Amino acid sequence: MLKDNRIRVITGHYGSGKTEFAVNYAVKLAGVNKKVAIVDLDVVNPYFRSREKEGFLSDLGIRVIGSSIKGASSDLPAISGEVLTPLQDETFEAVLDVGGDPIGARSLGRYHEYFQKGKYDMLFVINANRFETQTKEKTIAYLKNIEVQSRAKVTGLINNTHLLRSTTIEDVLRGQELCKEVSEELNVPIRYVSCIENVAKELPKDIEGEIFPIKMYMREDWMS
């Protein structure tokens, strides 16, 4: 995680778990005394947005940047000018949570001047249970469309194949096979294998990618 470039863009199919990963990523960075900002660029999906956890994240010292219209429940696609702060200020570790489809990725395109090779990472979250990312061909087509719309290149893959709290090790390993196929086709490394903590403990230690245990911050205990 600490080897990633300072600007980290997290993207992927809607429902892949990218926001959960982005929030967990920011929390882990803050836990090693990093100055962190999480930027919510999801202007398409009104559910499970990182800015909904602003209070929790702020208490950890994480700066949360989202809509210019205050109110976590606002669905208006208004992006704050504060987005430029962590992109320009190199004292920040920046985590950008981008809309979960190619249309949502367009919001990233306006900042393309900051996405210079070796200065950023764009991590594509794959959940093999999502319809648009169930096969190698579909996943690659989706990924490339996001690259076009965002005007940035994917530099790493995240296997986040899950069924929420019902996720099993078999689910994760099945997703890993898909990620390997995509990785080999595109010559893009698997950077992380992300899953709930009890499953992460069971994964083989030699699995490709860093095992990344996550907590379910975005789903309340009463949610399935």
Task: Please tell me about this protein's structure.
The protein has 7 helices and 8 strands; from the N terminus they run βαβαβαβαβαβαβαβ. Strands 3-2-4-1-5-6-7-8 form an 8-stranded parallel β-sheet, sandwiched between helices. 44% of the residues are buried. The chain is α/β, with parallel strands linked by helices and 224 residues long. Residues 68-77 have low confidence and may be disordered.
Structural features:
224 residues; alpha/beta; Rossmann fold; 8-stranded parallel sheet; 7 helices; 20% strand; globular
Q: pLDDT average, as an integer?
A: 87
Q: Using the CA coordinates, give the radius of gyration.
A: 16 Å
According to CATH, the fold-level topology is Rossmann fold
Q: Count of helical segments?
A: 7
Structural class: alpha/beta
Distance separating the two termini: 29 Å
Largest sheet: 8 strands, parallel
Q: Can you tell me the number of structural domains?
A: 1
Strand segment count: 8
Shape: globular
CATH superfamily: P-loop containing nucleotide triphosphate hydrolases
